[in-house]
Each structure stands twice: as structure tokens, then as C-alpha cells.
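Box 3.1 A note on notation
Throughout this textbook, protein chains are presented in two layers. The first layer is the amino acid sequence; the second is a C-alpha cell string describing backbone geometry. Keep the layers aligned when reading.
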Amino acid sequence: MHLGSMLPTHCTGEYRVPAETIRWWAREATDAGFHGLWVLDHVVKPDTYHTSLLDPLIALSHAAAVAPSANLGTSILIAPLRHTANIASQALSIQHLTEGQVTLGLGAGYVPKEFEVTGVPRTERGPRVSEAVSVLNRLFEGEASFSGRFHEFENVRIDPVLDTPPKLLAGGSSIVDEDGNRRIPRPILDRILDCGGWLARPTQPEKLEAEWEIISEYAREQGVDPDSLRRVMLQYIHVVDTDDREEAHREQKPAFEDYLAGDRDFDYAKRYCLTGTPADIHADLDAVEAMGFDEVILGQVVHTPADLEQQFDLLVETFLDA
């Protein structure tokens, strides 16, 4: 299983990461052997974090300039907030300019203000993502026509048409219905199959396994081999060099609480993110690898250059040099 690295693109007030630090991280992470550089997406700062993020596709383009061999990806890009043709054009351009593979992880979004400021009805977010997946698949193949609810065009070609176009992943997770059963809505399942892969959000290994079983069963029902689906997971991490779990949690608590906001406190982080000792984190990663995941993206919760440099060294020593 590969380990990817989240670019630190935090940008709100005191949380803003200097541009030179982002460039440094992109170069060093690529040279150290992280499998890919990934970015998050928020147009407006959500209530669940203390910071917003730089525009994802612009950030990836910048990373491509300083680390041209890196694989690049979005985890996730909120597709309903952007016109699909523009997403296609930007992604194709970045794919052409880099020596690595570009992956668009696509999701529906959840922050009401983001839909308000972009003029997109929040009630349309799911159908818009599903249609965007279909449109991107068509446009990446070359000249295409499409007639749908949100897109209508005929004989359109967006250059460059590439032998190896960007890849797609669909975000999405399960919900618990009124009977207490865990399920994944069918539109999300269809998007995962149409994208050829799933991008999972931070969660416990047992919940991740239950969700993958739902996806696998649906794939087989549709005549798709589940093993053919690419599986990537986003995780937040703060490494502490200690074998004492209580000490690790004491040091991790302020770091996570300085990043997460709202009802996402350290108890949330302990349930869903990578916390505890390096051995604890290795065990969680081993569980994800045993499920057949291709890559886990490690996202930092710190923002100062000094803290980022310290975390980078610990990540490399603990997970790449081990």
C-alpha cells in the first residue's frame, strides 16, 4: 500500500502557510518517496475546520512546477461548485504539464455558504456530481456530445486529448437508516463504479470495512469486479515520537483541536483519525492495507513552517524509512 502526502494549503489568517513552505513540502515529499501529493477543497471556510484552503487545482499546478514527477490528486474537489468543462480543461492541462498521474477525487460538498456564494442550489449537489462524472469521462476520451439535466453540448473537444488522461475517484460514505442499518445511497455507489474507484474519508477501520463490503456487493451485482476498483483513503495524522499512548494523546490533543472546529474535538480525532503511538498508527494502516486499499493520504493538522518541518521528518522516519 502506498502512502500519499497532503499539501499544507491552509490559508485563513494565522493558519496561512507560506508559499515557500508549500513548495518545500512538494519537493521534499516527492523526493522522500510519498506516492502522491494531494489537496483538499473548500471555497468558504467550513465550521468544521479553523482554516480554509487554497484553490485545489491552482495549488496542484504550482506543485507540478516544483515537483514535476509527482502524482497529483484532489481529495476532494467539490464538483458542484465548478463548471465541469472548466474542471476538465484545468485537469487536462495539469496532466500534460506533469510527469505523474493526475487524479480527480470528486465529492458533493456540505458547507451551505459554499453553495450560496457560487449560486448552486445545495439540493442539486448529488445529481450535479453524478452528471459531472459522466461528462468528464466523455470529455477525457476526446470529442463528445452530452444531453443531461445540467449539461447540454454537441461535438465538443477540450484539448489536449491525452493517451493517459486524469483518473477519477468518487467520494462518499455510508449513512445509518431509521432501522439502524448502515447503507450507502445508490447514487454514490453508481458514481464509484463510473469513476472506477472510491475515495474514503477518515473513519475507523471497522466502519471502513463495512462500507467496502457494501461497495463490493453492489459492484458484483452490476457485473464489476470489486478488485478492479481503485481504493484511496484520506487520513489526518499528528506523529508523536513516544511509546506511551497517554503521552501521545496529550501532545496530539492541542494539534488536532487547533485544526478541527465545531463538534469535531479530540474525541472525534481519536475515533476517526490516526492518533496514539507510532505503533498504534502502524496497526491502523496495516488494517487498511489488509482491506486492499491502494493508498492512504496522510494529512497534517499543523500549519507553522517549524511544526510542518518537524512533522515531515517524523512522517518520513516513522513510515517511509521504517
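The two ends are 14 Å apart (CA to CA). The chain has one domain: 2-320.
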